[in-house]
Design a protein that fits this description.
Length: about 625
């Protein structure tokens, strides 16, 4: 028998099932009298195969989701037991069909297959009887049992391979897709803007604005809103109540002295070489103008980010420090010894020393420390405020008795003023109901807020006077677009397949060999859809957000089959279609085999096995 990849794969599946079968979900708790859970035709589905199959599905799930080992209860919850049983039924149906057809595997083919399994090989790569015996002992199988199962897997593989092999899809399928995806278009197009109008747009009067406002009411209608009253307290509200001792500020300044007082530094890159000779040769090439530091880096397969040391002190550079700090920006010095070998150093930027006195840092330090203390003060007050709310205090009373400030907002998902800018507030506002009682919500900067829903406001058309500016802008854009589209239609009548579109006053652009997946700046995503629906020589006007454009299709080109990407795509599409067709045929075959052979499942036995694996 020629050994195909399918049969080898199935043998490895069997090996995995047997190995995973050594562990379990408490299988030893089941009765020893329970041996099978069902059959397909004359082939039985054993308890051991079912347990191993469920465990295999569990391990596959854990690997795919990168989750820790799951319990059998969890496996059943996500129906891994059903998936395992379905696969077992399909495998058993194939086993039965192979037996009915008389497909079998001889001793020599079996021996060759066993000899190729790495776990059964010795140090010399040959079959090791001791390794084989050890595996059988661990798996609880006799040699006859295991080899019978391998024979069945190999026979099943032959049957499966016969069904899957040679199912080539009609090339018309891939050719049609390639034609659709790879066809190219040449076209000429030109946009029309407000400056192309021959007459200036008049200012709209009240009648025009009122009509536009009514005709486009949805554009100026406020959405449903929740009128929410809130009380909130943020750290900056109580900063003036927080005292920070001068000595504490000085201590903080001293502790962070390195942050406020930084010595002179340099931005430096370092390229390491294997030996001094190579480093010297590279430096000489740079000095002779034969190469550059960037070229040396790229020749080594590196990026500049790979050799960047960032901002460093002179003491960080060891022997190279003095020379690097004396160099001009852009200069390359060295070679000097480094921890990785001889290296060239390029100095890019001088970062001057920075000194911030205590007086200069004082206000920033005070605000930082005061904010921290204000957060702690709010955190301490939170429990008392929570107790007041639990005792029935209203938000108005809370605002009177504490530092919390009262406010109101007609809230929508787009609201961002005050506490509405916080994610926690938005989450609570989205779900709050009239029946809910306020409770304290912590915000991410140390602030706290409590809210209540007063009423739900229905969508409301805003009066023209309150949105006059927005209506005017929208009317102007719409009227401009309409006039430009009318102008485009007038120009369209003058365009032929051979005419010069630029002679009509258009600023035209010629595009060539554009595919459906391309994008033309200055156009909408629908633009190319329209182009690919046109015939050569045809011209169209298309509306755009800012006006209109005119496009003429000049030529249609077939896919470029000399292009390696197109050729590869055609091959991939053909292979995918063939694979999909083969899998469909194989599923139909299994369904037919199972239907002819007859399926019997002992649900009582399955339930007993499942109970034993809990």
């Amino acid at each position: 028998m020629a050994k195909g990849s399918t049969s080898k794969t199935l043998v490895w599946i069997l090996m995995a099932l047997l190995i995973f079968g050594l562990g379990g979900f408490g299988i030893t708790n089941m009765s020893g009298n329970l041996r099978v859970i069902g059959s397909v035709g004359d082939q039985e589905i054993s308890v051991a195969r079912y347990v191993s199959a469920v465990q295999e599905e569990s391990r596959a799930y854990e690997a795919q989701t990168k989750s820790p080992p799951i319990s059998f209860s969890k496996a059943r919850e996500i129906q891994l037991d059903q998936i395992a049983l379905a696969k077992l039924i399909a495998f058993t149906a194939l086993d039965n069909e192979a037996a009915q057809m008389g497909i079998s595997v001889g001793d020599k083919n079996l021996a060759d297959e066993l000899a190729q399994i790495p776990n059964f090989q010795g140090l010399d790569g040959k079959f090791d009887r001791e390794a084989y015996s050890f595996f059988l002992d661990r798996s609880g199988r006799t040699e006859a049992q295991f080899e019978s199962e391998v024979r069945a897997e190999m026979a099943r593989g032959l049957l499966q391979q016969a069904v899957l092999t040679g199912n080539l899809v009609n090339p018309t399928y891939a050719d049609t897709l390639i034609t659709y995806l790879g066809e190219r278009r040449d076209f000429t197009w030109g946009p029309l803007g407000a400056t192309d109008l021959t007459e200036p747009l008049p200012a709209p009067d009240d009648v025009a604005l009122s009509a536009y406002h009514n005709d486009n009411a949805a554009q100026f209608t406020l959405p449903e809103r929740k009128r929410i009253t809130y009380a909130w307290l943020s750290p900056d509200m109580i900063l003036d109540q927080v005292e920070v001792d001068e000595e504490v500020l000085k201590k903080q300044y001293e502790d962070r002295s390195a942050e406020f007082n930084q010595p002179e530094r340099r931005l430096v890159e370092r390229l390491v070489f294997s030996d001094d000779a190579a480093a010297e040769a590279a430096k000489a090439s740079i000095e002779a103008g034969e190469t550059s530091f960037e070229k040396l880096v790229s020749d080594r397969g590196l990026a500049l980010a790979d050799v960047d040391l960032g901002d460093v002190l002179q003491s960080d550079l060891g022997d190279a420090g003095q020379a690097v700090f004396a160099a001009d920006p852009g200069a390359v010095v060295g070679p000097f010894a480094s921890g990785l070998g001889p290296a060239l150093f390029r100095m890019n930027t001088v970062l001057a020393a920075r000194t911030t006195s205590f007086e200069e840092a004082r206000e920033a330090l005070r605000e930082e420390l005061a904010l921290d203390r204000a957060r702690r003060q709010i955190d301490t007050a939170r429990e008392d405020i929570d107790n007041l709310l639990a005792g029935g205090a209203t938000l108005d009373e809370i605002a009177d008795e504490t530092d919390m400030q009262l406010g109101q907002v007609d809230w929508t998902a787009d609201s961002s003023d005050g506490p509405a800018g916080y994610a926690a507030f938005r989450d609570e506002a989205a779900k709050v109901t009239i029946e809910d009682f306020p409770s304290i919500i912590a915000l991410d900067d140390g602030a706290i807020v409590a809210l209540r829903l007063d009423e739900v406001l229905a969508p409301e058309l805003q009066p023209l006077d309150s949105v006059r500016e927005a209506v005017t802008a929208a009317w102007t854009q719409a009227e401009t677009s309409a006039r430009l589209q009318a102008l485009a239609e007038d120009l369209l009548a003058q365009i032929t397949a051979d005419s010069d579109m630029a002679a009509l006053g258009l600023t035209v652009t010629q595009e060539s060999e554009v595919t459906r997946g391309g994008f033309i700046p200055g156009t909408t995503p629908e633009f190319l859809d329209a182009v690919f629906a046109m015939q050569p020589g045809e011209a169209r006007s298309l509306a755009t957000p800012s006006g209109a454009l005119i496009v003429r299709l000049d030529a249609v080109h077939d896919p470029d089959m000399e292009n390696s990407d197109i050729a590869t795509l055609q091959e991939v599409l053909a292979n995918q279609a063939s694979s999909s067709q083969s899998q469909d045929l194989f599923q139909y075959f299994i369904n037919d085999v199972q239907s002819r052979a007859g399926l019997r499942l002992d649900q009582t036995a399955i339930n007993a096995v499942n109970a034993g694996m809990q």
